[in-house]
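Why Amidohydrolase family protein? Reviewers of the renewal asked for a concrete example.
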Amino acid sequence: MTAGDFVIRGAAVADGTGAPLYRADVAVRGGRIAGIGERLDGAQVIDAGGLVLAPGFIDMHAHSELAVLTDHDHLAKLGQGVTLEVLGQDGLSYAPVDEATAPQMRDAIAAWNGRLDVEHDWRTVGEYLDRLDRGIDGRGIPVNAAYLVPHGTVRMLAMGWDDRPPTGTELAAMKAQVAQGMEEGAFGLSAGLSYTPGMYAATAELVELCTVVAQYGGYFGPHQRSYGAGAMEGYAEMIQIAREAGCALHLAHATLNYEVNAGRAAELLKLVDEALDEGVPVSLDTYPYLPGMTMLAALLPSWSLAGGYGALRERLASAETRARIVHELDVTGTDGANGVPGHWDRYEIAGVADPGLRGYVGKTVAEAAGGRRPAEFYLDLLVQDDFGTGCLMHVGNEENVRAIMRHGVHTGSSDGVLAGDKIHPRAWGSFARYLGHYTRELGLFSVEECVAHLSGRPAAVLGLADRGLVKEGFAADLVLFDPDTVDAQSTFAEPRRQAAGIPYVFVNGALAVDGGERTGALAGGAVRKAA
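Here is what the prediction returned.
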C-alpha cells in the first residue's frame, strides 16, 4: 500500500498525549490523518479490532546514519514501530566534514556503524539531509530521520584531535559550523564528552556553542562526561551549560551505572526538577535495559587519544606510556571509563572489524585474555582490530532505570548500534520492551502513558508541529500493536529478532509493515527543523 486513501477501523486510540484510550476510526489521505470518528469511509479498510493505534514511535537516540541508506527492510526499527530516528548522536557523526576529516570520522565510529558500502557524497549537514531524501536508489529511506550537529565532528573539523582549548578563530569556526547546520535543518547539538575529541572541550566552549543553538530554538543533547564516578557532577555541568546558554537540554541515555551509583536516581531527578523549577527546559531519554554498549576504545584515557588513533599507536610503542595507560585502566580509572577501574569481567566483546578476531566475540575481556593481564590484552586487541571493536558493558542498575523512566520529562530511545557480530538487543527491542515488560508485565505505565513517552513527548522536545500525535492534519506516522502480546523478542544471545505484537506500521501514510511483514515502501526522508 502506498500513501493513499484508507481507513483504520475500530482501533483503541492512544493519541500520544497520555489521554485515556478511546475507540475510533482513523482516515488517512495523501499521507496525512484526514479524519477521526465513527464509521469513516475509505478506499481500503484495515480492521484494527483488538489493537491499539498510536503515533509512530520516535527514537530519540539512534545510530542509523548509514543503515537507513543501505538496509531496505530496517526491521530493527520498523519492526518495533519506530517511524522517526534522531541521528548525529554522541558528538560523532558524518557531517559536517571536509576531505581530510571525512575518512577520519568513518574510522572513528566504525565500531558503531560499521564500514558499510555507502558513497559518502556529502560534506555539510544539509547535503547529508538531502542524501537521506534521495535514500536507497533514489526512492527514499525506510523511516524518517532528524539530525543533531555533532560537537566532536565540528571540533575535529576546526582543530583536529588536539587536547587544548580552541583559539578565538577556531571557536568562531565551530560556532559558524553549528549555525550552518542549524540553518540547514538540524534540531540541535549533540556532544560526546567521554569520547575524543569532544571530551577535550571545557564548559565555556560548550556554553558558547549552545548559545548559537539557542538562537535557532534547538536543544543540547549531550552524552555527558561520566555515568559512573562523577556522574552527578557531570549532570550538574550539563544543566549549568543549558542555564548559561539559555538553551533547552535533553540528557542522552540518562543513566547511573556501577555500584557507586546504585539507588541514586532520586539525586539525578532532583537536579532535573530543580532546573525545571528555574525555567530551564530539561528532558531526557533512556533505553529499557541494564547493559550499555559502545566502542571498546572509548575506555581509554583521553590524553592517550590526543591526535587520533595514529598518535595512540605511536604512544603504545613506548613501554613507559603503555604502563601508564594500563595503570589508569586498572587502578585509578580513566575518564573514558567513567572514572571507574576496569571491570574486565563485565566488558563483553560484541563485535570486531577483523573477521579473524571473531573468536573473541561473546567473551568478556577477562575471558578473552586467558592468562594475560586483561588491560594488556585489551590494548593489543584494539590495535589488531584497527580500533573497530564494539563492547557490551554490564554495569547498569534496575532501580535507577525504573525510577528515571517514570519521570514526567522522560522519552524513549534505543541507543541502537546496528553493526557488529553481537549487538545489544535494545536496537531491535527497546520500544516493544517498554510496552510489554514495563507496561503490561510490571505495570509501571498505563498503555496510553507509555505511548506518550514514546511519541508525543519526544515530538514536543523536537518541536515538531505535525508529528507525534494521532490528530487530524498530522503526518500519518502510525503504529498498530496488540497490547496483550507486544514485546521484545531480541535477546543477548539472539539480538536480531523482530519484536512481537506489532502487525502494522505506517510511515507518511505508506504501509511499511503489513501483518508483521515488511513491504516495499521506502516512504521516509529527512525531517528538518523549521526555521
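The CA atoms of residues 185 and 528 lie 4 Å apart. This is the kind of structural detail the renewal will allow us to pursue systematically.
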